[in-house]
Amino acid sequence: METLLGWIEPLAELLDDPQTAQLGFAVMLGLAIFALMLALMLLVMGASDPLRRRLRRLEAGGEAAAGGESGVAQWLGPMGEKLVPSEEEARSRIARDMRRAGKRSPGAVNLFFGVRLLLTVVPALALMLLVLPFVRIDPAIGVLAVVVVAIVGYLLPRFWLERAIKRRTLALRRGLPDALDLLVVCSEAGLGLGAAIQRVARDLEVSHPELAEELHLFGLQTRAGMDNKAALRDLEERTGVDDIRGLVTTLLQSMRFGTSIAMTLRIFAAELRDKRTQEAEEKAAKVSTKMLFPLLFCVFPSFFVVALGPPLLGAAAAVAGR
């Protein structure tokens, strides 16, 4: 009993300090929120069919063996599966965008919605339970802040996805001229279209890994038995790059009419160079217009201050002296 009292007395002294008591309350509240989120996660994961859980676990194990998703993604996927749109058009659109961003795993769509749910709920709950109780602000402003944080968390994954698509599209467009030159050389050397694309994919692994990955996937599809036309259509669909779409259309027309692949590639490469030159000239012509606003609002005011400041000060001093 005396030992118990010896433990309680220092604790009571600590609780007498308001700051220590407030800090302890915040820590306990944080632990409670963490336990609540863990319980909800386990509830969502356990509410699904055991057979489907087993299939997802086997699928995740296969992806991990191939360098796939981490452990966090394995429990975010089942959470996001409940939020996947039921409409086939919306689901296929999200899957297409994930493929264009370079995310081709079977659970990429579920993971996307799981991350969206996590970023929507957790920051808003943390703000509502850990920050607002200790800050003296108007309740309406607090509710507005929670809603804004939830909306930002909801939109953030989509913003990341669009940026990833733009970044990958730019990388594919930059690597396409080099790939075309290598394809022309390989085709004129006597290689077929599939063999030439596989060789180019091997040569571009270091300089342009994104384009090399797409071409390597094309080679895998053709070796698996897919027709060259279908593989080219799939390449066009999963990349979404206008230049690659034009290349695929040109190659399909060449296959249809029986013209030379090497000559077709050489003509398309020349047209692509002309297009890139015109784009560069257009950007160069826009430079003068884009520099107008920085000159007006940043350079000219400082120039006027330096040039007209001393005479104006001298004139003001002369007028004051009279």
What would you note in describing this structure?
With 322 residues, the chain is an all-alpha fold. It contains 13 helices and no strands. It has helices spanning 2-16, 18-47, 50-65, 71-81, 88-100, 108-131, 139-188, 193-203, 209-223, 228-239, 242-257, 261-290, 292-321. The protein starts with a helix and ends with a helix. Residues 60-68 have low confidence and may be disordered.
Topology at a glance:
Blueprint: H1 2-16, H2 18-47, H3 50-65, H4 71-81, H5 88-100, H6 108-131, H7 139-188, H8 193-203, H9 209-223, H10 228-239, H11 242-257, H12 261-290, H13 292-321
Write a brief caption for the model.
This protein is an all-alpha fold and 322 residues long.
Q: What is the arithmetic mean of pLDDT?
A: 78
- Taking pLDDT < 50 over at least 5 consecutive residues as the criterion, the unreliable ranges are 60-68
Extended strand count: 0
Largest sheet geometry:
none
Number of H- or I-type helical stretches: 13
N-to-C CA distance: 93 Å
Helix content: over 70%
Helix and strand string, N-terminal first? HHHHHHHHHHHHH
How many whole angstroms does the radius of gyration measure?
31 Å
Give the class from helix and strand content and strand pairing: mainly alpha
Silhouette:
flat
State which percent range the strand residues make up: under 5%
Transmembrane segments: 23-47, 108-135, 141-161, 292-320
Subcellular location: Cell membrane
Main location: membrane
Domain Type II secretion system protein GspF: 180-308
